[in-house]
Structure to design on (361 residues):
């Protein structure tokens, strides 16, 4: 092994005699660097590659050993072990050094076998810490990679399921993307509102945004002659059409049961699918829930879904002007929609218009 591959020990001591003695003692097994002042020692210690161990004299002119150690410990990335060297015999000085962050304490005159043993121990422990740090970093990187992969698989799976419903009704176009972004925007606008701040955490909004595309997944169970009918539905056909809400939540619930463990976003997806056609005044479907009994996720989707339906062209209707759609949403305040959600929508209406234009069909 060449000297450059040996562990490196930095000696910081103002005594030329002590530097020579320690260097001669250590050099057969270590690469030795030396500094006669605290300032010079700090410059060497901070210069890559950093030493594996520092032997540090306590009493030096200028910056003493305690000052050098304090400077080193201000850098979180500097984890070089330090052994104090001192002629002082007071136990209080030893305690002060250890409390300041020294790894060990050796008295002068140095006993060669003691110093070599303690230096070896500190370097071996540093090797073990470095190895463990590298292993942890590798493990964290692998966990992050797998989480990103699982996240991508989840998002793609959700989008695939949403497009399955979309394929049954080709006129919906980018409805899924628009409503997803409307819901996300509404949630972010309301996250500081006293009624919603405890619910609308970062995690909840993320899960809500993931779940939103599944709101109409139940439409895959609606017969074509009803789902694709170009004109108005009869009363009997409308009864069938309304079953898509429960069909969607039932399908998601079956997926939950098939999973070995709970999947957070499925709980919100089930809420949205089942209750996004409920109305604040209790006149919605399928369960006629009133007010706050309707899950927040479904209340947010209710407004997003209606707004997008109003401004989108269908075979049975033309696209409604944006200001007209705005008026209808405003009129639905405290009737069809949660009043505070309507207020957030109206206050930032331009942002919803931007989403509608960005993801237009």
């Amino acid at each position: 092994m060449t000297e450059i591959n040996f562990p490196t020990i930095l000696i910081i001591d103002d005594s030329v005699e002590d530097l020579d003695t320690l260097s001669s003692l250590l050099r057969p097994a270590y690469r030795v660097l030396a500094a006669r002042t605290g300032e010079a020692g700090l410059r060497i210690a901070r210069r890559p590659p950093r030493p594996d161990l520092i032997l540090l004299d306590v009493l030096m002119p200028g910056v003493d050993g305690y000052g050098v150690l304090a400077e080193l410990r201000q850098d979180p990335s500097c984890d070089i072990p330090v052994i104090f060297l001192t002629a002082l015999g007071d136990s209080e000085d030893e305690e002060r050094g250890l409390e300041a962050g020294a790894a060990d304490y050796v008295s002068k005159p140095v006993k060669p076998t003691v110093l070599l043993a303690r230096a070896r121990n500190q370097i071996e422990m540093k090797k073990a810490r470095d190895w463990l740090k590298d292993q942890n970093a590798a493990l964290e990187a692998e966990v992050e990679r797998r989480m990103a992969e699982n996240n991508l698989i989840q998002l793609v799976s959700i989008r695939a399921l949403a497009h399955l419903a979309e394929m049954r009704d080709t006129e919906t176009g980018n409805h899924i993307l628009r409503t997803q972004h409307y819901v996300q925007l509404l949630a972010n606008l309301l996250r500081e509102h006293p009624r919603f701040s405890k619910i609308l955490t970062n995690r909840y909004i993320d899960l809500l945004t993931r779940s939103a595309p599944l709101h109409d997944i139940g439409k895959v169970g609606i017969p074509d002659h009803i789902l694709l009918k170009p004109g108005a539905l009869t009363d009997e056909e409308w009864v069938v059409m309304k079953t898509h809400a429960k069909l969607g939540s039932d399908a998601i619930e079956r997926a939950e049961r098939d999973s070995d463990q709970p999947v957070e976003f499925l709980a919100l997806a089930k809420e949205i699918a089942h209750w996004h056609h409920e109305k604040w005044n209790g006149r919605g479907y399928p369960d006629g829930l009133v007010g706050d009994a309707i899950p927040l996720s479904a209340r947010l989707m209710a407004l997003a879904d209606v707004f997008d339906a109003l401004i989108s062209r269908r075979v049975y209707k033309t696209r409604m002007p944006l200001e007209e759609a705005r008026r209808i949403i405003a009129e639905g305040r405290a009737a069809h929609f949660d009043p505070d959600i309507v207020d957030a929508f109206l206050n930032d209406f331009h942002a919803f218009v931007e989403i509608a234009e960005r993801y237009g069909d």
The first strand starts at residue 8 and ends at 12. DSSP finds 15 helices and five strands in the chain.
